[in-house]
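We emphasize that the prediction below concerns an isolated chain of 211 residues; any contacts that depend on oligomerization or on bound cofactors are therefore not represented. The input was used exactly as deposited, without trimming of termini.
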Amino acid sequence: MSQRTVEDEALLDAARACVLAVGVRRTTMTDVARRAGVSRMTLYRRHPDVASLIGSLMTREFSAIIGRVDARVAALPTARARLVASAVQGAGELTRDPLFLRIVDVDPELLLPYVTTRLGAFQQAVVAAFERRVAEGIADGSIAAADVALVARTIELALRGFVLQTLAEGAQAAREPLLAELERLLDGYLAPPPAQAAPEPVRATTATVPA
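Result of the prediction step, given as a token string:
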């Protein structure tokens, strides 16, 4: 991801404020420029249209979740523990994120491509983070996986479905128990199989030969 300037951050802050106020579809480049205190040409030099601007905003906001969660789990003893904790905490944070909830509430159709046909920048960042964790887990023996990319992609798909389903009507009340189950699911999926118990040695017996 390219380094953002102070001006870039100010533009994204203004876009965030507009989306929280009126939703994505009613946000205009003019409104964002006015809220940021810049000319429309300045905004257009950074982003050619609203879709590009909102995409950059979503990437910034949701990638920040990854950064916060990674910092919290950094001290856990194994890569599997760090991956599972970061996945579960990240999913939990996303379902409480004001920007995400506003999009779901006002413009839910905008999320459809990310569910069906498109892997967005944020999702790519999540998969890349999971790939690093899986590789670390294979190295430290806490994760069993033959295909790092496949496992990382599978986890992202599981989380995507979880996040969307917890936003269904009535599902918020069950979020915490579901997060606990998600943790068990991921940990069991990644854990190496238990070592097979060694067979007990055959004890020699003295047969009694009948007289």
